[in-house]
Write a structure and sequence with these properties.
The protein is mainly alpha-helical. The chain has 4 helices and 2 strands, in the order αβαβαα. Strands 1-2 form a two-stranded parallel ribbon.
């Protein structure tokens, strides 16, 4: 069992039982949807929905590994597009990892 799935039973989320009005609707309760919700949590009208149980889809069954070493992606980007795009992709991956590190540090 993955680390993500180990504690899922500790969390219960209400099913949507009526029509609601919201300014922001996040569809999908995986790591991307939950990260989006994290950054929007201080807004008044945000709702996250998932077709199944939050955190039990693809995210539950991943290794949860943060890395910018993604195989041959950089050489493929350089070959098929150009060197600058490959560099920007690397920068985006490092930036994303730093965002996660900041959240972990802040939230302990």
């Amino acid at each position: 069992m993955s680390l993500w799935g180990k504690y899922l039973d500790d969390f219960n989320f209400d099913k949507l039982s009526s029509v609601i009005e919201t300014d922001v609707l996040i569809i999908g309760g995986g790591i991307t949807g939950l990260t989006t919700l994290y950054y929007l949590k201080d807004y008044e009208s945000v709702c996250l929905v998932d077709a199944n149980r939050i955190g039990t889809g693809v995210t539950k069954n991943t290794t949860g590994k943060l890395t910018f070493l993604q195989g041959a992606i950089y050489s493929e980007l350089e070959k098929n597009i150009n060197y600058d795009v490959a560099c920007k992709y690397l920068e985006s991956q490092i930036y994303a990892i730093n965002l996660i590190k900041d959240i972990i540090k802040k939230e302990k």
